[in-house]
Amino acid sequence: MTEYRREMEDRVQASPRAVRYQLLTSCLEQDGVDYLTYGIQCMGDWSGHWVQMDAVQDISFQRENVVRLADLFNRRQLSPVHFRDAVLDCVNA
After folding, report:
1. pLDDT tens, 30-73?
2. I want to staple 44 with a disulfide (CB 3.0 to 4.6 A). Which of 16, 17, 34, 65 is the partner?
């Protein structure tokens, strides 16, 4: 097998078949008080198994804001390559 062909096959296997974004919940404690914060995780379908590819925690205390953001990423089929930049752009907007 040529080096070029091996490299191309590695690239194909290194990509998920599908990507989805979903809510991620974290619990923080400060001064004896628990707070829920919400983030987004990027999930990839690798041979029928959903695996977390990346995650950004603590985006907001408002669940609905983060749910809407995850829905937007899913509708627009955001590439995982742009995930972190897109989150930062939306948070800083």
Report:
1. 999 999 999 999 999 998 999 999 999 999 999 999 999 999 99
2. 16
Q: Which two tokens stand for residue 13?
A: 């296997």
Strand, coil or helix: 39: strand
pLDDT band at 10 (very low <50, low <70, confident <90, very high): low
Domain spans of the chain?
16-92
Q: Which two tokens stand for residue 77?
A: 């089929």
Specify the 3-state DSSP secondary structure of 90: helix
Residue reference for tokens 């998920």:
16
Burial label for 44, CB within 10 Å (0-12, 13-18, 19+), is middle
Neighbours of 90 (CB within 10 A): 17
Please, are residues 38 and 63 in contact by the beta-carbon 8 Å criterion? yes
- Distance, CA of 66 to CA of 73 (rounded, Å): 11
